[in-house]
């Protein structure tokens, strides 16, 4: 595919005016508080898989409305110390798969939590909440109102997953990172904007960013779901984009504080580079990096990018450890005091 978006030098300066509702923070504070108040049990059970170097467990935690959400909890075998954790969110239509498909982070010495995405085709977690009529897919489910929108539940699940992980035995609660690509990158970005206790965020070619531009720019799925919906419901354009403004990754990015590593393929027709850069340029943390892949589409950097992700996370863990040591140094009184 030929490049169709802005030149890279313009991408780095791209700072669009993205709609942000006045009650954005109140909406999300209330949503998360209600989910926490709903209660529910966190359970961890062993999984019978023939892995020797990695321990596999199933984590079930209460997500939106206390609904049970499933995840894998993987860690290097025989390691009793508290480990830094990577909470991974998944791409559109996918699910957590099988433990043997998710070994990389645990093999590198991290605890790895892989959250299911409720209701999606390959998931093991149901979405028990109905919605108004929508076109096939997930992007228009409940889109009539922010309170009923599908991604309100998914983003809340992401926040509650980190809540659960921080309470697990064997986790260093000061060293929890979030990660994901495409839809998973959008979820990671939302979680990074909704909490300020993360050591890092790894955000690859995120979906769910700058909806107004994406829906009008690309004819590819899943953004095309919104275009098809509005082609039928011609009088709902303003209401639809008002709902989407509560879920736009650009608005979450503006509230994020965790150091972040972004990436994007400059020929990506699914999540156009300018929508990714809109979130990156708005990202509020003082430490952030963008990696671009000039000739790649939605696959981004693929497996070849993982060593850079692991290196970035190690850098942030080391930086956090140095900051902790500095805080622990006693302040000595000046001579004569």
TrEMBL record:
Cross-referenced SUPFAM superfamilies: alpha/beta-Hydrolases
Active-site annotation: 182 (nucleophile), 268 (charge relay system), 298 (charge relay system)
Entry keyword annotation includes Zinc: no
Molecular functions per Gene Ontology: cephalosporin-C deacetylase activity
Sequence ranges assigned to domain Acetyl xylan esterase in this UniProt record: 1-309
Secretion signal span: none
InterPro entries: AB_hydrolase_fold, AXE1_dom, CE7
Pfam families per UniProt: AXE1
EC identifiers of the protein: 3.1.1.41
Keywords, in A-Z order: Hydrolase
UniProt entry tagged with the keyword Hydrolase: yes
Binding site for substrate: 92
Biological process according to GO: polysaccharide metabolic process
Protein name as annotated: Cephalosporin-C deacetylase
Organism: Microbacterium trichothecenolyticum
Gene responsible for this protein: axeA_1
């Amino acid at each position: 595919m030929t490049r169709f978006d802005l030149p890279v030098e313009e991408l780095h300066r791209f700072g669009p005016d993205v709609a942000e509702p006045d009650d954005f923070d109140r909406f999300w504070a209330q949503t998360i508080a209600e989910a926490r108040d709903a209660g529910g049990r966190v359970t961890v059970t062993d999984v019978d898989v023939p892995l020797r170097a990695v321990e596999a467990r199933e984590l079930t935690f209460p997500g939106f409305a206390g609904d049970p959400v499933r995840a894998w909890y993987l860690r290097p075998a025989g390691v009793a110390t508290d480990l830094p954790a990577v909470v991974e969110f998944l791409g559109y239509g996918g699910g957590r798969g099988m433990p043997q498909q998710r070994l990389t982070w645990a093999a590198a010495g991290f605890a790895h939590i892989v959250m299911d995405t409720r209701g999606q085709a390959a998931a093991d977690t149901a979405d028990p909440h109905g919605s108004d009529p929508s076109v096939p897919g997930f992007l228009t489910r409940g889109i009539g109102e922010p309170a009923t929108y599908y991604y309100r539940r998914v983003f809340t699940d992401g926040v509650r997953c980190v809540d659960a992980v921080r309470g697990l035995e064997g986790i260093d609660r000061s060293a929890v990172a979030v990660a994901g690509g495409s839809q998973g990158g959008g979820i990671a970005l939302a979680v990074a904007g909704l909490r300020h206790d993360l050591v890092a965020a790894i955000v690859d070619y995120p979906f769910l960013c700058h909806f107004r531009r994406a829906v009008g720019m690309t004819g590819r799925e899943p953004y095309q779901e919104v275009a098809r919906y509005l082609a039928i419901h011609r009088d709902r354009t303003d209401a639809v984009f008002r709902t989407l403004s509560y879920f736009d990754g650009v608005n979450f990015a503006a509230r994020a504080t965790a150091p972040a590593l972004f990436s994007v393929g400059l020929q990506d027709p699914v999540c156009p580079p300018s929508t990714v850069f809109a979130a990156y340029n708005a990202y509020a943390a003082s430490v952030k990096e963008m990696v671009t892949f000039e000739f790649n589409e939605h696959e981004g950097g693929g497996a070849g990018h993982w060593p850079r992700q692991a290196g970035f996370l190690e850098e942030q863990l080391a930086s956090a450890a140095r900051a902790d040591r500095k805080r622990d140094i006693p302040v000595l009184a000046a001579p004569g005091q």
